[in-house]
Amino acid sequence: MDDNGIIELFFSRSEQAIEELRLKYGRLCAQIARGILHNEQDVEEIVSLSYLNLWNAIPPKRPESLRGYLCRTVRNAALNTAQSSGHFYADSINGELAEILPDASTVESVYDSAQIARYINEFLQSTAAKPRIIFVMRYYYNQSVKQIAHSLSMNENAVKTQLSRTRAALRKHLTERGVEI
Amino acid sequence: MSEKFWSDSLSQIDEKFTDEAAEHIIAATDADSPETSGAAVAELPEIKSEKRLRKGVFAGILAAAAAVGIITTIMLNRNTGELTESSSGVSAIDLSKPESSSYAVESDSGAFPESVLDPDNYSMDIAMFKTCFEYIWQETENSGNEYKLSLLEDDFFNLFGRRMIGLRADDKGWYILCDYYGGSDFGNDLLFIPRSDPETMYHYSDAENAVVNQPNCRYKANYKLTSVSLENPTRLGTAGLQFFCEKYGADIERFTDITAEFDGQTYTTNADLQHSGNITVTYITEDIIKFTEVLYPAENPTPESAMLFEITLTKNADNAWVQYSAECLGLRDKYTLPEEKTLYYSGFDFDVLERSFFGVWYNEFFDWRIQFSYSEDCFNVGNFYPLSVFSDAAGSYISGINGGMGFAFFVPESNPNVMYYYTDLGEGETLIDEPVQIFRKTSSCVVWNKYPAKLSVLGMRYLESGRAGEVIKLELPETITDSSGEQWVYQNAFLSDEVAYNPYYLIDRNGGGKTDNILLAAKYYLLYELDELGGHTPETTARYFTLEFDYTTKEFICSYDWGDSIQDFDKETEFSKQVIENARADFADDYYCDSWRTATVIDSWYRIGFDGTCFALRNLREAYHGDKIYTELFYNANNGTGFRLVYSTNDIVTLKYMLEDYGYAYLYSSDFEGGANIIRVSSAGEVETAYIPKEQFGEMNWQGQYLLCTENDSVKFALNLLTMQPAEDYPEEYDTSDTTGGFIPDETEWLFIGGAKWASAATIPDLKWVYELGITEADLGEIAGEVRVKVPKNTDGIEDGSATGLQAGTPLYSVKSRGDILAFYNERNELEFYYKWVEG
């Protein structure tokens, strides 16, 4: 069933919407949740919770992209759970993000996250598709390098190299816009 | 930065990027396990997670149900293979596909088994109806007609006079058995959806004698319909009414057999009155049901004679529903205003709009549903455009124009749930007692959605008003500093009425307002005038800047691209710069009369050139309007006697007919100070111009037009503000309508004039002549491409000013051993010119 059909099921309050959602995107949701959470039971809970969130949100919301909306919902729910443990990212990802902007308190005191997000979106807009996808898979969906390499039929070193270049380019992009490093 | 800050920042990555990446994740997971559905269930993981899910979801559903009073839920049962009763008494539906047996509908020449034909095996299963049947079905053979099957309305039953006996399911599929009102000689009808193909429905008109592979009709499920709750007031179709009666224990005759008294007479349905089919339940309690239905006089069942009835049912001592009253609410309700109202322009009061008009309105007579909100309204087509919203003691008004006539919506203060619509109003006409339509309010709307998925015309005006405030970040700081360091004070609403170039109001090809969905195309540029405090002097002219509306981030970005005049924005993009330069060069050889040359205000807005056989009108305003440009060309191939209209806005159409009929035509544009530029063109090629400052305008008339007069009163016409706006969404292809017969543009002209082709053209910048090479035909390699744009004379970058310019379509050859040289044959078929390809 296509996404519009699933959305219509939500609007008609048919629980088949949940079933169709799970059939189509269940694996994706689990994969996204696993990128952030490492407890399989938590993953299950988060995916189920995300379905419930969609059920409660649609209607009235009619997402432009059901998949995008669902992914965001799963990610945010997983992050909320992760937050309770005090960690948003794996240590490896933390280290990589620190290459872009070190833990400088001035950045947070001067900029709000929306502004940094706007710069990041600008940057992604101007970035070629492949490095952009790798970047988002790594830092938005928290996918491991191995998973990314598998998904994109690349070897892991190529993924790491691409990530490194993209981080450097983003750092330059932010610096040019006056973001203090 | 901290993890939290990174998390917050990355969480705001645009959904298009996250969706793009998700596509690759899902592709990989699917590739890992091709049996998507089964694997997905196991992945989540297996039945354990399903229970967990159900528990969570059902808890949410029940919470939601408790909140909104919804009782009905649809229980999904994937395990039993049969319909079961859930604890709440609602049927569960087995939606699984068959494992072994199913009708091979196309080849099974047998009859349906007795179990399918027995009415006792059927029940009014609303869950099954909603899940399996509530679609728009399209006939796959014969007519291809579409039929709605829903609780709200059902063309199918209503159209053919059928009534459901009930629904059932077995391992082969889902069924609805129907009979006819008043009986039939053709037996019962059967609708059947096989499990093996749940998007196909088969209709058998005589079920008992039907053969499986010989259905009377096949339907394809085209669109899943939104269902309704029977607990709330709602419109009901024939099937919906059956379910409603089932739920509330009412005989359906209470809705179909109505006795009404009015004008001293007693009327009954099916004798004196004819049903219209769909009813609207307006009120439900344990012992009162009110509903309305449009009924027609049996002898004259036309919309003009339709009557709206309100029928009230109550329960008697035996707990049975009976008719309590039937009141005729009116015959095409007329409404007489307390006093005559002349439409006038009286501002745009958003408070009135939101208070009196926002919501969904429904017209029962013509099944016309309209909505007024900032995300949806009825003003997105044609010339239907609101000019004014205001109120007085009698009520609230929206007045506007529809083509050349006026319209008005009126909500009386005495009854805010009724709205009257008047149309075809001429200038100065009044609203008296003949509304064309009457609407009743069915629901309210969200006033302002923080992130609207789309903006209606009203929504755009809302943004324009600045009322969105911080939500949409439309407001500018009180002072801003331009690129030269000069500080400007934000004096007043920069979106003033005087800014004639107002890109909010888009026009479609017919000149009407059209904003719906356009903003979804992401970026949109708005140009504004910044006034200096105390007004302008010759030394202190206005400055201009742009705002960029980026819909992907759903906010306005003050890009502060500054300019001293609107012409500065012509250079906003390299693309527009190229277009303008090409245009200027192209007209270098054209004739300009003196009056034109002095018309500096107009220069670069409209250019008109004459070479004895043609003239062209170009509108370059679009050059700074995003990356799109539209070019208008009016081509006179026969010395003024015949005109070929390549593309037209209202201006050009006017020009054409005025030239043909009177020998003269007037064009107009409006500058940013609110004045009007007028160009008078004769078919002999004479051009006169005039500029009329706004102070000399007459009063705006009721249609929002100004009457303009020159000093000698020789030029007089209305400036229609609504047709002054530039277009955003011109189609890729331009229409060609040959008004003289026979003159069709050749490819060169198309390339030359077609806006879309400009956009995709491979322009040739920085071309340089090279003479020192002795290249011969033998040196030519493959054709490297072709000239996509006519390169005009004397264009910067062409060193040889005597060049005649290449025609579009001219092949360009590579030169062996010289990758930087391109060669082509000139008009005399001589291999004479060589271009050094510098860029691109």
Can you walk through the features of this model?
The complex is a heterodimer of chains A (181) and B (840). Helix content of chain A is 75%, strand content 0%. Chain A has 181 residues and is mostly helical. Chain A is globular, with a radius of gyration of 18 Å. Chain B has 840 residues and is of the alpha+beta class. Chain B contains 16 helices and 45 strands. In chain B, strands 5-4-10-9-8-7-6 form a 7-stranded antiparallel β-sheet. In chain B, a hairpin with a 3-residue loop joins strand 6 (162-169) and strand 7 (173-180). The two termini of chain B are 42 Å apart. The C terminus of chain B is likely disordered.
* Amount of beta strand of chain A: under 5%
Order of helices and strands of chain A: HHHHHHHHHH
Radius of gyration of chain B: 34 Å
The number of helical elements of chain B comes to 16
Low-confidence spans of chain A: pLDDT under 50, at least 5 residues?
none
Total beta strands of chain A: 0
- State the low-pLDDT regions of chain B, or none: 33-93, 97-102, 332-340, 449-454, 469-478, 489-543, 545-561, 565-674, 699-772, 788-804, 834-840
Overall strand count of chain B = 45
Q: Label the overall shape of chain A.
A: globular
Assembly state of the chains shown:
heterodimer
Structural class of chain A: mainly alpha
Structural class of chain B: alpha+beta
Count interface residues per chain for the largest interface. Answer: A-B, 78 and 69 residues
